[in-house]
Write a structure and sequence with these properties.
Order of helices and strands: EEEHEHEHEEHEEHEEEHEE
Largest sheet: 5 strands, mixed
Distance between the termini: 25 Å
Number of strands: 14
Strand content: 35-45%
Mean pLDDT: 89
Shape: globular
Number of helices: 6
Helix content: 25-40%
Structural class: alpha/beta
Radius of gyration: 20 Å
Length: 279
C-alpha cells in the first residue's frame, strides 16, 4: 500500500515574491538506511496556486501508481489538497505524523535560507469538557519489546498502533522503556475515549508552570489543537513528569495513552501509540 505525504505552501524568494511549492514523498522510510523517497517537487507561481493546478500535478505524480491516501500536516495546505485529491478519488488524512515529509522540508529549509520553516502556529490550550474528566491518572512505563504483544491481542474497543510506530520499526532496543499516561476514566471512560478519538490525538507533553513545583500535561490533537489534559501542584508529581519527558526523549518521542475504567486491569477502553517528533 502506497501512502503519500504532501505539502503545498508558499515560500519567500530573494525578491520577496512568494513562490509556492508542492512537495510529495512516500511515507515509508527505509528502517536500515533511514532514506526517504522524494516522489515529486513542483514550483508554482502565486497566480496558479489553486485546486486546478494541484489536480494536474497530482495526476502527473500518480502516473505510475496512485496512492491509497495522502497525509497532510499543514492546516493551510489541507483545503486545496483535499479538493484536488477528491477529484481523483484519493482520500486525504489530516495528521501531524508526517515524519518523512517534514525531514525533506527541514533539509530544504536548511539549504535555502528563504525557504519557509515548517513550524505550525499552535492554539491556546483549552480545558477538557468537564463531563469527560477521568477519576485518576498516572504515568507508566512499558518495555519496548513487550508493548505491541501486550495490547495487540486484547479486545480493546479503540486501539491504534500504527506499523511505523512499532518500536522495532524505529530501531528501538527491546529493553528501552516506553512512557505513557494512564487514565482511569470510571463511568466516563468510553465517553472520554470516543471524544479523544474524534479529535485525532497526536502526542502528550508536560509543560511546567513553575520550575520544579507544578505544571500539567497537554494533549495535542488534530493539526494544531491543544487541550489541558490535567494539572498538578506538587514537586513530587513534577519530578515524575520530568522523568516522563526524559523517557520520551530516549524512545525517539514514542509514548502511549491508555484509558481504563479502573486500575483492576480487567478492562481496557482505549490505547494509542503516539510519537512526538522534533519537526
Amino acid at each position: 500500500m502506497t501512502i503519500w505525504q504532501a505539502d503545498f505552501y508558499y515560500h519567500p524568494t530573494a525578491t520577496a515574491a512568494k513562490q509556492w511549492e508542492l512537495a510529495i514523498c512516500d511515507r515509508a522510510i527505509d528502517p536500515a538506511t533511514q532514506t526517504i523517497k522524494a516522489i515529486y517537487l513542483a514550483p508554482c507561481s502565486a497566480a496558479d496556486a489553486n485546486a486546478d493546478w494541484l489536480e494536474q500535478q497530482l495526476r502527473l505524480a500518480a502516473r505510475n501508481e496512485t496512492p491509497e491516501k495522502i497525509e497532510v500536516f499543514r492546516p493551510q495546505s489541507l483545503g486545496l489538497i483535499s479538493v484536488a485529491a477528491q477529484r481523483l478519488g484519493i482520500p486525504v488524512v489530516a495528521t501531524r505524523n508526517t515524519i518523512a515529509l517534514k525531514q525533506i522540508l527541514l533539509e530544504r529549509h536548511q539549504q535555502h535560507p528563504n525557504y519557509s520553516a515548517i513550524a505550525i502556529e499552535k492554539s491556546v490550550p483549552q480545558p477538557l469538557p468537564e463531563n469527560l474528566w477521568g477519576d485518576e491518572w498516572q504515568i507508566a512505563n512499558i518495555a519496548a519489546g513487550q508493548i505491541i504483544d501486550l495490547f495487540s491481542d486484547r479486545p480493546i474497543p479503540i486501539c491504534h498502533m500504527p506499523q511505523e510506530l512499532h518500536p522495532l520499526n524505529l530501531n528501538l532496543t527491546s529493553d528501552i522503556f516506553i512512557p505513557g499516561v494512564v487514565v482511569f476514566g470510571g463511568r466516563q471512560s468510553m465517553q472520554l475515549a470516543r471524544w479523544i478519538e474524534q479529535q485525532t490525538p497526536a502526542f502528550i507533553n508536560y509543560i511546567p508552570t513553575e520550575v520544579g513545583k507544578s505544571g500539567g500535561f497537554i494533549l495535542e490533537t488534530g493539526l494544531a489543537d491543544r487541550w489541558v489534559f490535567n494539572t498538578f501542584d506538587s514537586p513530587e508529581t513534577a519530578a515524575i513528569a520530568r522523568k516522563y519527558e526524559q523517557s520520551k526523549s530516549n524512545s525517539q518521542g514514542l509514548h502511549f495513552l491508555l484509558i481504563q475504567p479502573d486500575d483492576s486491569g480487567m478492562t481496557t477502553t482505549a490505547f494509542w501509540l503516539l510519537q512526538q517528533s522534533d519537526v
